[in-house]
Write a structure and sequence with these properties.
With about 290 residues, the chain is an alpha+beta fold. It has one domain: paralog of FGE (formylglycine-generating enzyme) (Alpha-Beta Complex). Helix content is about 15%, strand content about 10%. The protein has 5 helices and 11 strands; from the N terminus they run αββββββαβααββαββ. The strands form 4 sheets. It has a 4-stranded antiparallel sheet. A hairpin with a 3-residue loop joins β3 and β4. The chain is globular and about 55 Å long.
Length: about 290
Amino acid sequence: MDHATWMRITLVIAGAAMASGSLVASCRAHLGTDDTGPGETGGTDTDDDTGNHCVDDTSLPDDTGKPPDDTGKPPDDTGKPPDDTADACPEGMALVAEKVCMDRWEASRPDATSSSMGTDTSAATSRYGVRAWMAADASIAAAACEAAGKRLCSTAEWIGACGGPDATAYPYGEAYEAETCNGIDAFCDCGSKAPECTCVDGHGYADCYDDCGGEFGQFPTGSFPGCTNEYGVYDLSGNLWEYTWDGAAGVLKGGAYNCGDSVTNHRCDFVPDWTPSARGFRCCADP
């Protein structure tokens, strides 16, 4: 079974277990000022004032969200890139451009699991296969990194890691791929709305959610093994927006699972001019 097929089956299970999402027209998705708790979700985020909308996603039931090999371990089984260049960095971090250590996985709470964000806010962790920490603002993210002996990544560091050694538009390359990272186009219901929905061999395409609909949601860290590059940092596009620091304020990067325009929002160079709902972060440290 290939990865895309497995992910679709997982979401079918989730949809059967819980109520499907409902459409609420003409709104932007915002969360309150407090740190979001486990299980809270947002809707689709768009930056088009004429077409803003929110679609509630379905939460993952227990015992789902593991990769097809069901090992619960990172793809290389070590937590480090295959060339072991991360030896200069703490566990769970990757060495990026020989300049900065960056968390391989989006930040999570110490007690997070594959189906829960947890409740322990003592410090950020970098772990594979758990729900990422949704943080309400950059100050919460920065404090969680500091408590872990790290710091919030700078915007420049984040962009450098996202584009990889070749500075591409997305972590995996120059052209958008609908199913490589966790975005709204990764789970289009390809069999539902022909002829408007024009999936090829059951695979989604750019903006296919508008044509096909489908289930979507936050997945555990590292669930999309192709969403990376030579640096070995995962999920820089999709899953959750990530707070970075530009020296004066927090800057959100990377897009999320619920972006209405993933082609644009998932680009390494994109910065939103609104406050998205699904906000996370990752930490950095000096080698």
